[in-house]
Design a protein that fits this description.
298 residues; 10-stranded mixed sheet; 21% strand
């Protein structure tokens, strides 16, 4: 684990990746219903309109990148008025190949690569709840290159394909999430990492989750007074420092329990508890059931 963002993405384990080419010309519009899984799109050439539910409509241009962390309903169209064709993303999710909208003849007015992936971990809400509903980046050359590689690998059956696709999506997520932060982002990890002082404390927690951290020690790492650190952390990350640390420890513990990565006593030590009983009490209070039952149900 290299840093907090890498920690979270590795814990979520993105997988089940699909992508396809999309183009359009003339009068066209498509309306996708709510999907729920993360989806992405990069514009290779031309332009079109995108209207995501709950967001202002935007014009997408060549070099633009879009990430919808939970993919609500949306409408994509050209600039000539057209009645949207209704599409169910669950029914079309596994379809490969190129999709053409509008006029079939002649060159396209827009060319894109779109796709989606899923998180293998049930803790997907850990990241999604801390992100804007739509991430729209301009001039995202590195992301465009990554999406092109995803598209190439999705359509191939080469050795190591699944591993490479997983790594490419992890890199794509890191690149996209690096670009967001500040006041436009909901309180959470990304906003905390965008604050250099809070980031120093968050990195310490992630580097040594088993350490018996105190608010005073973390405030020192952030070069802030204890009261200033507590207030700034709670406002920016959305929870007080010790509550964030507890949440991260429990997410680590749930992942270890799901994977059967050690006995209860070993997992307790890994996440900062001196005994299995103390860990079991904290886990049950936080998760709603003892760790043994959680592991049996996972």
């Amino acid at each position: 684990m290299l840093d907090p963002l890498s920690d979270v993405i590795a814990l979520l384990r993105p997988s089940t990746i699909f992508s396809k080419g999309i183009s359009g010309a003339g009068a066209w519009a498509v309306r996708y219903s709510d999907f729920g899984h993360p989806s992405f799109c990069t514009v290779l050439e031309g332009s079109c309109r995108l209207a995501v539910d709950g967001q202002e409509a935007v014009t997408l241009e060549a070099g633009d990148f879009i990430l919808l962390p939970a993919t609500p309903g949306f409408t994509m169209s050209g600039f000539v008025p057209a009645e949207p064709a209704l599409l169910d993303p669950h029914a079309t999710a596994g379809m490969a190949g190129e999709v053409r909208h509008g006029r079939a003849e002649g060159p396209p007015e827009v060319r894109m690569i779109g796709g989606y992936f899923a998180f293998a971990s049930p803790e997907a809400g850990l990241l999604v709840s801390q992100l804007p509903a739509m991430i729209h980046l301009r001039g995202a050359e590195r992301l465009t290159a990554l999406v092109a590689m995803l598209r190439e690998e999705t359509g191939a059956e080469r050795p190591g394909r699944d591993l490479l696709l997983t790594r490419l999506v992890e890199i794509l997520l890191v690149e996209a999430l690096r670009a967001v932060g500040g006041e436009a982002t909901p309180p959470g990890l990304l906003r905390g990492l965008a604050d250099p002082r809070l980031a120093a404390a968050i990195r310490r927690m992630h580097a040594e989750p088993a350490r018996a951290w105190t608010t005073a020690e973390l405030a020192k790492a952030a070069a802030l007074s204890r009261s200033a650190f507590f207030e700034r952390f709670a406002r920016t990350v959305g929870v007080p420092p010790m509550e964030y640390l507890l949440g991260w420890r429990m997410n680590l513990a749930k992942d270890l329990l799901r994977r059967g990565a050690g006995r209860i006593e070993e997992i307790a030590l890994t996440v900062g508890y001196g005994s299995a009983s103390a860990f079991s009490t904290a886990f049950a209070r936080q998760v709603g059931m003892p760790p043994k039952r959680f592991a049996a149900m996972a």
